From TrEMBL:
The lineage of its organism: Bacteria, Bacillati, Actinomycetota, Actinomycetes, Kitasatosporales. This is Flavoprotein. Residues 15-122 form the Flavoprotein domain. Transmembrane segments: none annotated. It comes from the Bacteria. It comes from Streptomyces spirodelae. Pfam families: Flavoprotein.
Length: 185
């Protein structure tokens, strides 16, 4: 059976600090996981990057490859953008792709790669008018957005609970999205 490849694309929100556990959870259900991080998330995890690369068997990417350079990752079966910050959600919806994570996610829409995202923002960011517009734009583009009931529910600023981030919902949604696309499960 062909390997199922999950691109896990994490942003600089506190739940990304648990990414090693999430990689293990995804691997236990049969995903070959490639980890991409925004530059700030990569900085937060800099001490863990060698172990994360060993765990996945792939380089952790936080920047675009050079033109003409072969891709170090196998093609994606599905992608999960989580935790997705306010900045990443808005850049993705607006097509602002200077970051590798956002660029891949934006292009994946056009390629038809099943995409799931779970934002991680506080309630003050969530009230910004662009945020709701961006979530709706991504939904209309076919991205499964796990936000609100049945996904991530924002906390008051400074009252985040990174250990309560519902990673299990995100991984279940990726399984469902891959199945809906007719991909092996």
């Amino acid at each position: 059976m062909a390997s199922r490849v999950l691109y896990l694309l994490g942003c600089a929100a506190p739940p990304v600090l648990r990414v090693a556990d999430v990689l293990g959870d995804a691997q236990r259900v049969g995903w070959d996981v490639c980890l991409g991080l925004t530059p700030t998330a990569a900085h937060w995890l800099s001490d863990q990057l060698p172990e994360l690369e060993q765990q996945t068997g792939h380089p952790v990417r936080s920047h675009y490859k050079m033109p003409g350079q072969p891709d170090a990752w196998p093609p994606a079966t599905a992608a999960l953008v989580a935790p997705a910050t306010f900045n990443t959600v808005n850049q993705w919806a607006l097509g602002i792709t200077e970051k590798f994570v956002v660029g891949f996610a934006a292009e994946a829409i056009g390629k038809g790669i099943p995409l799931v995202t779970m934002p991680c923002v506080n309630a003050a960011f969530a009230r910004h008018p662009q945020f709701g517009t961006s979530l709706e734009t991504l939904r209309r583009a076919g991205v499964r957005v796990l936000y609100g009931e049945g996904g991530f529910v924002p906390n008051a600023p400074g009252r985040g609970r990174p250990d309560a981030f519902p990673w299990e919902l995100a991984l279940a949604a990726v399984e469902e999205a891959a199945g809906d696309a007719g991909l092996p499960q």
